[in-house]
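Many introductory courses stop at the sequence. We go one step further.
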Amino acid sequence: MTDAGGPMTASPLPLAAAPLVIGSSTLRNRLVATAHASGFIRDGLPVGGDAEYWGRLAAGGAALLVCGGTTVAPESAPRQGNILQLHRPEAVGPLRERVEAMHAEGAVAVCQLVHLGRETLGAQSYYAPVAPSAVRSPREPTAPRALVGSEIDEVVEAFRVSSAHALEAGFDGIELHAAHGYLLEQFLSPRTNPRGDGLEVLERVIAAIRGMSADALLGIRFSVDASEDVALTPDELAALLPTVDPLVDYVNVTVGVRATYVRDMATERPPVLDDLARLRPLVTRPLVASHAFRTAASIGDALAAGADLVGMARALIADPDLPHKVLTGRATEVRPCVACNEDCRTFDPVLLCVVNPDLAPHGEPRRPAAPLVGAWDPARATGERVAVVGAGPAGLECALSLAHAGVADVVLYEAADRLGGQLATAALAPHRAGWAALLGFYERGLSAASVDVRLGQTAEPGAELEGFDAVVLATGAVETSPLLEAGAMTSSVALARGVPSLAGAAHVVVADDGFGWWPGCDVAELAVAAGVPRITFVTPGTAFAGAIPPESRVQLLERLFGTCELEILPLCTATGISPDGVTVAHRTSGGTTTVPADRVVVVGERRPRGALDCAVPLVLTVGDAVVPRRVAHAIAEGREAAVRIATAVRHRMPHRRA
């Protein structure tokens, strides 16, 4: 017997593979796709691509799929309409297609319902935010309007109506979102509801849903950690759980409030693991442990600690086949989520993933990408050999995709003595080791596919490359700056050398490029790791870390707090270095300041390496060798180059099969 990816073997996680009866449903295993949105929502309703996304996720093997991004009332819906509005009856029809797609692949379908309350997600709304009381969220500029009188009845009715629509669409159940500081948790927290009627409101919502169907699953999600403003403290949650537990079919525990609940790669261990021993005796229903579970080992840890089910979202966005792979002994084949929090958090224009080029806008076969064509004459191809020059993310993805296509013999050249290019350098930064998991995936895949990897070898134009039918140039970029001649060090060099590059310095100046991305932030953290007591961050931009994902920025600032004297000089440019220090030009006053420093690290401009002249039939350039950009562009272009070459080779030599 086989599945989609290889021979079926006994599960290395027998409990994870065991079915579980939950309410009136039977789950085929213990893996859950926790609530997230597909992004295929326009004007508050599902559009083309939505059902296909959820069907593909179900086909990957998760037993329970919880659909998120679903609001219950107009005042909880951002005006751009990118969140499902289930209070509207016209949502039922397209949602039925979503449910049918999940059921067709054997998954149990649950719809999570949320009212955001005072937490507007930073989005514009047509209506005023509401909450149990007029207590301002630290994530919002103004306090909400307090709900009064019959408006609480209207909140209960909103959950009932939206639940009715979900059940009419065919969902097997409802999950109530009482986590992350949203309205139900605002009712339950004494800090945002001094009336103390939060449990009564929750019980009314539960009774309203139970009154429509005794068979429908009903779950509830809680955050297990306290915050400075609203989230239930551990003691408050412990007191609440025994009361709520008998009213629901399962309890789903996660972490955080808005802006902290999506932990990035600095969180290497699922945080709820530390809470399971305390929570397990308080819950008689199935307990779902959620957040930052990305590996078979962490799944096993959660089940061993008392969880009945393990929930994942980003890990399944990166590889929807993770359940099948983990449960059939092929965990090493999982394309890993690196928790970079980039594309999966922006919904621009839909749910995308940096590491998964198969996730794409509706109608596209994969993430759109356009390798630069240097030569394209398939008729001249006489053999089936491809050279990929450069083993950064673009070259790695191209070589692995070609090997999986099975239409060519692939040779991967890399001048350095390691795989990864700039991605390997980024993985050396403090708290950024998530990228190493992706490099490990490529290394294992190339080895399993018997790709000829030649480290420490530069591919030269001439006879060596002219023996190939196709050459993919993935030679990357170099970081440069006018300040290098004056003694500055680039961020790439500093990170590659690690702590020794800044060890012993009393004052480091980081000259950012003004775009607020990770290199400057990484250097600041490297300086902290090196014990540098004083850091001055100079940026032509308006803020420190202004462009990194918002959740990552919150976590970065928490890590930096109290570690050193960090001075930020916004709207300033480092223009020179002298024995006296760094000359800083102020963009507002027009004046200059000299900042003493004994080490200067600059985030320079990245420029493509020089192109190779290859007289072969097919030549494509990908990734930073075209224009330096993000990892997502490199991976997508590497995949696209492989598809184009494989298609050309198959057409030329149809006797070869993938």
